[in-house]
Amino acid sequence: MPVIINDVKLDYKDVLIRPRRSDLNSRAEVNLFSEMTFRHSKRTYNGIPLMASNMDSIGTFEMAKTLSKHGVFTAINKYNSIEGWKKFATENPECLHNVAVCSGIAEGDFKRLSTILTLIPELSFILIDVANGYAQSFVNYIKKVRHAFPNHTIAAGDVATAEITEELILAGADIVKIGIGPGSVCTTRTTTGVGFPQLSAVLECAEAAHTLNGFVIADGGCNCTGDVAKALGAGADFVMIGGMLSGHDQCLGEVIERDGKQLKIFYGSCSATAMNKFFGGVAKYRSVEGKTVEIPYRGDVEPTILEMLGGLRSTCTYVGASSVQELPLRTIFVRCNEVVNSIFGPS
Fold this sequence. Notes:
By secondary structure, the protein is an alpha/beta fold. The chain is built from eleven helices and 14 strands.
């Protein structure tokens, strides 16, 4: 029998962070680096807890080279060749602690993952990525990868509820990726009716993960740096970013000219564009759960990431957090009906 959960569930647009007294005199005093030691791999990571998405056009080697200079992580998309990985590792060894190798759950994915990790032993992060992390086959695959690579840090997702977050951690994941349908070019919620408001998903899943000494990635739903800050304030250990990094030089795809404007293509991982590119079309048994958009060309990504980091430092000063790791302890959310004054258009 169908059940209705009457508890209010919230997205980033539904709240603001309440300012609090602060002893900080300058944004420069804020430490944006987080240090975490993982439950299964026992490895310790220190970096800024932002992560470029493993989407085809975002999780590129070029993106990783730029973001790693600032201590920011990149999940490299799974469509890069083994030869490309070898070249990247040889030419950019300083970036290897800030990237993850991504894998699906097919047998061919496991063979490719094993080959890359054997050829490049310095790589320590694995991201197992599927659209629906609730399948038993996904749990079984995490166990398989954990058995094969006991000393690697494994992130896995996507899911959006506390119970499955706990199950994935117990199966061998160090980090669970949270988000069903919140992405800017994801249409899962309209196509299937399935999802969970992202802020509440992060709050509930982070609490479940932290109880087991696990971690979470808030994946999707951020339209501005303020949303990233809300995700971190809600307990996310990383925030994965796609649309906010799109349109840059480091993104896959050429700049196109239309009506005197420079544009780049940005598309979802389950869009018709992606399925035509990688699988020869949309299989008859499935639907399209992503869209393709043309967005303004934005040049180099470095100014964008620096602006983002500056915004996070400002968030910390408004609530009196001397570090980004202290932000959840200082965050109080206030529900609201309107986040911004839009009289002159969107900010």
